[in-house]
Amino acid sequence: MNRAAAAVSVTGLGMLTPAGTGTEATWRGVLDGVGTAAPDPALAGLPVDFSCRVPDFRPEAHLGDRALWRTDRCAQLAVVAAHEAVRDAGLDPGTWDGTRVAVIVGTCWSGRRSGEEAHRDMLREGPDAVPPTLVPKVLFNTPAAEVSLALGARGPSLGVSSACASGAHAIALGRDLLASGACDVAVVGGTDSATTPLLSSAFHRMGALSRRRGEPAAASRPFDAGRDGFVLGEGAAVLVLERTADALRRGAGPRATLAGCASTNDALHATAPHPEHRVAEAALTTALTEAGLTPDDIDHVNAHGTATRRGDAVEALLIARVFPHAPAVTSAKGALGHSFAAAGAVEAALTVLTLQHQLIPPTANMDATDPDLPPLDLVTKAAREQRVDAAVSHAFGFGGHNTVLAFRRSPEPRDPLAGELS
Question: Which of 110, 273, 387, 391 sits 20 to 30 Å CA-CA off 61?
Fold first, then answer.
């Protein structure tokens, strides 16, 4: 299959993040470059008691009673993001051929929040306290299944779990389904709600979380000399993908072109990345080749940038080695924390918006360059207006998972002044 022969466009975006509900709120939040981490009542008394939560999310405003009853917050976020993305694409689930619509949603944790709550209730009150809805709440296919149900999408429906690469991996798989002819529309993305006591304690025990309890908003510091770990986050992002010819035929204005995708696995360690990110480099160069791009063509890198000591170091080495011309680099995790499977999809969506608006968001909390890192052109303090014709988005996960998405500015881009974004 010649995947490169089938041009695929992003025609719709939907996001819920700690910067707010909706794509506009998230875009404006990351452009402001301010951290969103705050004390989390659910984590009170724990060694790390702060997180990045989606503010003022009221699922009852978007979902019916039965959907609320049977779903965890993780799936609820995905469904709301999917509705926004489909509206943004100008598609109507009431009139489309659902058998030609695929849904792929990545998640690391699925219904972890509901699982922890049910286990606590069982220990306190006995097995009858476990809700009958727990099994569908915790299944890893549930976010994809609930999105399919909400949209009447009857094509391929897949749950992807490749750690923090899951959301980006779902996007890549959606592109492949479109290129193969298995569907005409792919609703793809990632979701997670991981701000739970057990996960906070577990990541703290690993030494992976920032411990800046006195200044949580400044805790997530990608590539900064003072970084000391990531911040737990939550969110969801969904993209609508269509073959470019199909989108233009129905009069849709593409936001950007998804030109190349590639995934690899380090096959080295359960949690640690390859010390030189050599296998991730293979994913990066393969995505570029598929996109018909050279490293010199890349104007912007939306980095995985978790703010861990080792992770940022090896990613900086990778970027400097592959892109000696020093494209502009940013990480959204300074503002949004780490939303696991959602992160790769959120960052892909932000890369699309950067291409559309020719504006690169800053890396929040990046105050002092780490002298041990190779030189990078990190965007800091304020958003940067810059010509961006091609960009890549990285997503790396425990277990050695690497996924890279390569985007091009659409040859017939949607007017960035049209609609609600500016």
Answer: 110
Digit-coded pLDDT (tens) for 347-381: 999 999 999 999 999 999 999 989 999 999 999 99
Contact indicator for 403, 395 with CB cutoff of 8 Å: yes
Q: What is the pLDDT of residues 16-56, one digit of tens each?
A: 999 999 999 999 999 999 999 999 999 999 999 999 999 99
On the CB side of 203, CA atoms within 13 Å amount to 25
* Contact residues for 366 (Cβ-Cβ < 8 A; gap 6+): 221, 222, 223, 224, 334, 378, 380, 381
Active site residues: 164, 304, 338
Sign for the CA dihedral angle at 279, 280, 282, 286 comes to: positive
Contact between 83 and 316 under an 8 Å Cβ cutoff? The reply is no
CA 77/CA 147 separation, integer angstroms: 10
- The count of C-alpha atoms lying within 13 angstroms of the C-alpha of 170, restricted to the half-sphere facing its C-beta, is 40
Determine contact, residues 261/172, Cβ cutoff 8 Å: yes
Distance CA 43, CA 62 (A): 27
Q: Is 106 helix (H, G, I), strand (E, B) or coil?
A: strand
